[in-house]
Amino acid sequence: MSMDIRVSEDPSAAAAAWMARRLRDAVRRRREASIAVSGGSTAPPLFAALLHHDVPWDRITIWQVDERVAPDGHPERNAGQLTAVPSPLRLMPVTAKDLRAAARRYGAGLPERFDIVHLGLGDDGHTASWPPGHPVVDSERPCEAIGEFNGFERMTLTPRVVNAARSRVMLTLGESKAEMVERWMLRDPALPVDRVRRSGTITFLDPAAAARLPT
Question: So what's the pLDDT on residue 2?
């Protein structure tokens, strides 16, 4: 099945409206819902828009897709992007002394299946914290400590967990992402994002990011 691609002038608002409907439906069906949220530049505008919707926040648990290894309160921590969200948070234990053991514990506590996993797309084709050429994309464990990537050690969920979610929301903005979007759509296996399952993934783009979409 092909991916659902939606291009709009305000993809953050479009993604938020779609997520709000999906979360309300999940809570209606199962009495609770779960989201895993990526770091990067797309989470703040997405959640700023989502907070304007009628969402049963007390029934929704927020987890992290990835996190930088840094002290609590550090400005580069992805956790700082989630402080305004009125839901229970399950933050990655990146201040632990033994990061590999901490990743195993976090992975063991994940929900059986996320309702939504939010993803972004890096200028090098990475998503989550899956660096190009890194063996994390083939891991059978749900969560891994991957070592240094772009200046920080990282912890990340693996493709196994991301692809098991009921839905994946990719939010990608700006001209700098247009080449990676094109290569992803053309199924370039060199890109980590190519490991994301296409069925069940909905991609929200602005016109600049969509400028090189294959016809």
Answer: 79
